[in-house]
Amino acid sequence: MDKKKIASSLLNLADSLESGVLKENIKIAVTNFGSELGIENVNDAIKASKSPLFDIVVIGSPLEGFESYEACGDDQVAKVLEDLFEKGQIQGAVTMHYPFPIGVSTVGKIITPASGKEVYIATTTGTTNAKREKAMVLNAINGIIAAKANGIENPSLGILNIEGARVVEKKLVELKENGFDINFATSKRLDGGFVMRGNDLVAGTPDIMVCDSLTGNVLIKTFASYTSGGFYEATGYGYGPSIGDGYENPVFIISRASGTPLIKNAIKFAYDSVKGNIVQVSKEVYDKAKKAKLQDILASLETKEEGVKEIAPMPEKEIVTKSIGGIDILEIENAVQVLWVEKVYAESAMGCTGPIIMISEDNFERAKAILEEKEYI
């Protein structure tokens, strides 16, 4: 066994004997860089979240009394987090920005004003799929994963009444008929049904409300800041953990306008999810969905034109550290293909302000020129 792991285990045991509480060897990274409300706003939440149950690792400006890693800028913060995840030194992270790949999105959690009930919003940042209906089917699965990891064995699920809701309803019913367990909620409105109205959102009818990420992002911001005039996110648990098929780094997003109470809740959300083994739950739930013909259901949502698109061969993979934004989500994968045709390696991802393309530093200017010429930016 690794000597460092033995030493860490002995130290944890000593701490447990001293405090009388068994620590679960969970480390949650929290970044204190980038808050519009100031660094103390984040540091106060970190200090208030100190617990004998888990450790907090600070990324950004060092904080006395906590294991800390210096980082300045979103790119540096992301790089430090990636390195810590890769080395197994953290099991979760709470941060204000992270470039998720397409296929990954976050499940937020709000507190409904009518009853104080917690409701999972699936999803709130990131893009599970460029096509809305496909994304919402996957978002439903991600919502179930988040709820199960947080102790809800059979969460009820509703679909917000937005564009594509009826198509998504049909496909989720098909998934259920194929053997995937979905506990559909029934609207409190007189005509019932699985499709939820705004009233159901306020009332907290379902445990999980399914929508697209852009709608979910607006909902999270509204529920978090409606008591503060919109400039300070005071309630709720933030934008939640990053979830996707095969994705193993649970990154919990908060806003640059998130206040101390919300950040404290987000840290607890991260700990509870990691304690609930969210990565393993994700694997198990996606495996069950695939056995219920998830891929066939997603394929049935493709248009004929989408199904016959020519795919350019991927160039040799490079380390990508620069990002190009300003590309519409519906065009992001096409833009990547345009660069691949020109032998420029690129990856699609999602930043806090929208979709981005990740490029190596050497190819950055050339990639920008190609995308400008093709009118993607």
Question: Please, could you describe this protein's structure?
Answer:
The protein is of the alpha/beta class. It contains 13 helices and 16 strands. It folds into three domains: 93 residues, no CATH class; 200 residues, Isopropylmalate Dehydrogenase (3-Layer(aba) Sandwich), CATH 3.40.718.10; 65 residues, Alpha-Beta Plaits. The strands form two sheets. Strands 1, 2, 3, 4, 6, 7, 8, 9, 10, 11, 12 and 13 form a twelve-stranded mixed beta sheet that branches. The protein has a four-stranded antiparallel beta sheet with strand order 5-15-16-14. Strand 8, helix 5 and strand 9 form a beta-alpha-beta unit. Helix 4 crosses helix 9. The chain is globular.
Count of distinct strands: 16
Radius of gyration: 21 Å
What characterizes the major β-sheet? 12 strands, mixed
Structural class: alpha/beta
How far apart are the termini? 52 Å
Give me the strand/helix succession: HEHEEHEEEEHEHEEHEHEEHHHHEHEEH
CATH class of the largest domain: Alpha Beta
CATH structural architecture of the largest domain: 3-Layer(aba) Sandwich
> CATH superfamily of the largest domain, called what?
Isopropylmalate Dehydrogenase
Strand content: 15-25%
What is the 3D shape? globular
The tally of helices reads 13
Helix content: 25-40%
CATH topology (level 3) name of the largest domain = Isopropylmalate Dehydrogenase
Mean pLDDT figure: 91
